[in-house]
Amino acid sequence: MALIVQKYGGTSVGDADRIKNVARRVAESRAGGHQIVVVVSAMSGVTDSLIALAKKVADTPPEREMDVLLATGEQTTIALMAMALHAIGVPAVSLTGAQAGIVTDGVHTKAKIKNITPKETHRLLDAGNVVIVAGFQGQTPAGQITTLGRGGSDLTAIALAAALQADLCQIYTDVEGVYTADPRIVPSARKLDEIAYDEMLELAGSGAKVMQLRSVEIAKKFGVVFEVRSSMSNQPGTIVKEETRSMEDIVVRGVALDKNQAKLTLVGVPDRPGIAARTFRALAEAAISVDVIVQNVSHAAAAPLTDLSFTVDKPDLAKARLVIEGLKADIGFQEVTSDESICKLSIVGVGMRSHVGVAARMFETLAAEGVNIGMISTSEIKVSVVIDIAQGDRALRAVHSAFLG
Ligand code: ADP
Ligand code: ASP
Ligand code: MG
Hints:
405 residues; 4-stranded antiparallel sheet; 34% helix
């Protein structure tokens, strides 16, 4: 008898028929003699509608209340899923994140899981139930409802698999697995049979929303091998696991496009020690994560001034601007500008460690497409460029075809 954690995303539970479809799949897995924990997301579109609703009521809704609101999306699905299982004769109990013992820090809307006490889950499983856990949510030690950031149901599933020492962790979604690129933008993208944690991490951090970034970090940390596969078919998916030697033979495993970034530029910043430290400390204290950073020498060569540009997630832009404007008197820059019409295009592969000329080939491909590069950042296994959002899809297809056919 195996303990299996299965996570079903928003599209997979998007309407009553799909919930019934998932219930049948869960019943089949259980009929194989296994204990099943099901993690579900809010039905597709629900989280977005709740966010839109909140914005109609208040320009900047308090983050604590956002969490109370957003957690209702997943709570709806757990109850409906339990009902669908009961209806086909399968004993099932739904649990909110708090009831499932998921304890987080207090950073509302982006909370991190601190620990999980799976006692109640084990008890219910041992009593013969399927346990259905609300993804994306937890509770602080003081009992406040929190959410884990967009796509956070992936994290609930991986963290639960680790805490329960599950034999299998399956992430069911609306595509057949992890592809060489988002198959909705690149029709020639291919499904990968396997991918290394580090590659999945870089792809997730580069906008491939098929897995939430933090969930992959936790999978790597706790050695949770998981499979991404379709809730609509029985095809094997993609196994995400520790790197093996043969993986280095492939130079580029995948490409990704992140349209959810915005660029901020501090124009005319005094060029002296401590400025970057103060800027990024203030952003960190506001829980804003910064991605690509570029510091230029200013055209005003006479005065020791520079321009400092960086990207943040689009939803953080307004908050980041406020933080930066709050530093103006202290730092003394001339102005701050922002640009939302950018995107980040990345190529990822562990094979880059042992192959040269990869970045050059990417830049040549973009040049041939007439795409101007605004910023560049690299890691050992990734090259990212910031480009005009209007050229993003075309550039992604060109780079995919250059490296992956
Ligand atoms: P779920 O609701 O199941 O969590 P998501 O919408 O969060 O599903 O993630 C699945 C989507 O991720 C796919 O529909 C696809 O458009 C997108 N995606 C982006 N990059 C990739 C990739 N490299 N491989 C597969 N899907 C990708
Ligand atoms: N419902 C949340 C979201 O839309 C969490 C998830 O789907 O994983 O981001
Ligand atoms: Mg998702």
